[in-house]
Amino acid sequence: MTAHYIDTLRLAVIEGKWAEKFGELPRNISVKPMFDFLSDILKSNQHAYQYEMVSDLHSLQFTIQRICQDAEIKIIYIGTHGTKNTIDFINERVNYKIFGDMIVEQLHRSNKKIDGLYLGACLIGNKRVAKYILEKTSNIKWIAGYSDEIDFTISSCFDLLFFRHYYYFYRNTVLTAADAMHYMDPFLISISGLMQTKMENQKDTERLSGNDVNFDHREIFPHPLGLGFGIFKSENGRIVDALRDF
């Protein structure tokens, strides 16, 4: 099979300012060093991707509009706070339908097709949000994200693992980005403890403990680890989670 090489990562990283709580002063933490590292490892420089910072829906819309004019970009990563129903900026909480409609409108207006939209935010990377967006457009092949509350450090490590393996398969093994995602599924399942939701992990721990009355998982794991990571795509007329809907 012929290797498929790309000159850049074809990736746009959009990030909001981070604060402990909604409306508080932001902190000087960022996912940018992680993507600088990824770019350096894969492309031997830190400039093989686009980085943008936004503060509200208006600046996000402007940034998406500009990215849609760049034929190189095939994946959009958005890192910010989130809830089950909103994507959150420093002082603005945006409903997922407004967010999704804006993304779809900008893609359709520019006739832009992307391989993936990666939501690096708590809770909003759930099937309901992905379904709302994917049912409105065929210009996005997949949406990935987290349906649980996530720790910044752990989720950043997971993001790094995800993109490192994605680009490995995309660059060295297969011909298309769609094939790369197919090859990604076994890798993600192999680290299922991180991929699963906290509830799924808790059930697995209870199952492994069996009938041992001396084993109390709540004492050992009072806060079960889990990110609730999912990859959603349209398949045979319905929206599926590629990691769960077999």
Task: Outline the secondary-structure elements.
Blueprint: E1 11-16, H1 32-43, E2 50-54, H2 57-67, E3 75-79, E4 81-82, E5 86-88, E6 93-95, H3 96-109, E7 114-120, H4 127-134, E8 140-146, H5 152-173, H6 177-190, H7 192-195, H8 198-209, H9 217-220, E9 229-235, E10 238-241
Parallel strand pairs: 1-2, 1-3, 3-7, 7-8
Antiparallel strand pairs: 4-5, 5-6, 8-9, 9-10
Helix pairs in contact: 1-5, 2-3, 5-6
Describe, in plain words, how this protein is organized in 3D.
This protein is an alpha/beta fold and 246 residues long. The chain has a domain at 11-156: Rossmann fold, CATH 3.40.50.1460. It contains nine helices and ten strands. The strands form two sheets. Strands 2-1-3-7-8-9-10 form a seven-stranded mixed sheet, sandwiched between helices. A three-stranded antiparallel sheet has the order 4-5-6. A hairpin with a 2-residue loop joins strand 9 (229-235) and strand 10 (238-241).
Based on the model shown, name its key terms.
246 residues; disordered N terminus; 20% strand; three-stranded antiparallel β-sheet; Rossmann fold; seven-stranded mixed β-sheet; single chain; alpha/beta; globular; 9 helices
